[in-house]
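Input:
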Amino acid sequence: MSNISDVALKANVSIATVSRVVNESDHKVNPATREKVLAAIRELDYRPNALAKGLLMKKTMTIGIIIPDISNPYYAEIVRGIQDTADGAGYAVMLHNTDRKQERIIRYIYLLREKSADGVIFSGGIINEYETLSILKELKERVVVVGRHAVDFPAVMVDNMGGATQAVQHLIGLGRRLIGCIAGPEGSTTAEDRLTGYRNALAQNGMAFDPRLVRRGTWSPESGYRLARELLAGDPRPTALLCANDQMAIGAIKAARELGLRIPGDLSVVGFDNVPTGSYFDPPLTTVEVPMYDIGVAAMRMLIDLLGGGMFEKLRLFNTKLLVRGSTA
Amino acid sequence: MSNISDVALKANVSIATVSRVVNESDHKVNPATREKVLAAIRELDYRPNALAKGLLMKKTMTIGIIIPDISNPYYAEIVRGIQDTADGAGYAVMLHNTDRKQERIIRYIYLLREKSADGVIFSGGIINEYETLSILKELKERVVVVGRHAVDFPAVMVDNMGGATQAVQHLIGLGRRLIGCIAGPEGSTTAEDRLTGYRNALAQNGMAFDPRLVRRGTWSPESGYRLARELLAGDPRPTALLCANDQMAIGAIKAARELGLRIPGDLSVVGFDNVPTGSYFDPPLTTVEVPMYDIGVAAMRMLIDLLGGGMFEKLRLFNTKLLVRGSTA
DNA sequence: CTGAAAGCGCTTACAG
DNA sequence: CTGAAAGCGCTTACAG
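Output:
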């Protein structure tokens, strides 16, 4: 791998001149000289070393993403949106999975700082411990969060409450009265907001909130399956279910099927997110669409604006949309 | 952000000494001096700059992954395996999606070289053009490929042929005679191998290969749906279907359902890969399990060994396993 | 238009 | 045990 000195030597110029033609600098370079340099670059297949450049310029054109788990389709979709946008703007992306472990969140933030990432997008998991907060603060002006967090960073958020309310309204409109909820885990603001939306819809319709109809899962299909079995074996037995994400809804439907319940007749089920395979289920899953890809795009755009130092949105709120399909009636 | 000189100043030592304590070097450092340095590091919250270190040491502890699309659960699972292993060994990961575009493959390889990635794992997509090959060669001794490629790199492969043969044997054992195939796209070695396995099984059982029973999809559920409709409207109409991946199988099942066909009675369907949600379908999807996560782990281990300069496996072959569930009978 | 030189933040062979 | 100095590969203000 040749470096800038090799090129300078071969073209019989200084490294300053090579740098100027490589970077298409404003500084004038004689066309003939430029040609010599270009020829040398081609011959040597020279590429500038990004580490050296980054060290000097304090800009690496690299950003970090911190998420719970890339094998979760929800985050995979967001990441794809981020990456396409990053790529279009010349940024490369480092990816880190935390499994929502505080210790790993902290470790990755430090790592990203060591590697001089220009910025960080943080999604999923909770920023609550003092250390996490204080580290993140050092990256101030370089962080965008996705979701509702108790920190003062530019954020891309989703109207989870509104979406959940709308979903329950839909169920009520269908004549369902015993509406259960498989909520997300304690501590997740997304889970809390969706649960609040569920409660609000009940309240708006003068229906009592019954804790016996509510369980908290872990977002996984397994948890949806297990909790639906509990709920459907309980008294009162719900005739409709709002699940806080599609994965749990898929698990719940399996549980209902095993108990001989027909979907949507005996049990109507609504999911949340609209993961790609939802429409391929039997019956196709009614769900609250969250535009994951667009959220990723928006987060990256926000970060780019932020790093650019100019104006930037401090908050971008995405609305959700109820997609009525076969699993409710 | 403080640097090594700040620490040296505060601790009243040279930067050489700071470097020695930071790196826990073998070079002796007086315990009292060490304490002073450690205290200064703590006070300043000093972290070494990885760019400077990488530039000097020619080792960045960063690797690159090049895949078609992270929102495809198949690759998401592989990536998770790679990342967990990389993380355990202190490597960070840069991720790039190519959508199988040759131009992007080339671009990312160059980019990874510029950023001085220590190594690259390449999966999905095709390395065939001259330019791609010649660039990759520069990274020789630093690349591991996943899948069968016409290049001489250490590789992690899957017994796709064997898996497909086994799946078709299963179908034949069930008494099915008109076995169709929704294969993967032209040019993908994975697609070719799975198709070959299908043909082999037919041949072994003295059954003729009938091109009217075969279509080529794009791996997407949509393509599976569309091609299944074609196949099921054709003559002869297949009574069983081998789909080259689960996504297409899911699409095919939807098509069959819409045509009023019962699964598995009227049409038995086998997928490939065993993506996480397959067992939640109705009926649960019979499929050929590919251990994606373990493949990622193996690829990263191989790369670590390769970079370590010692011995390393040149080829690791993973066997597949038929998972018989409800979609075949 | 061109180049010598300083400096980004590190590590390590060398001298003491 | 400690430190001065060279050097990794770049960019850019400065002088000419």
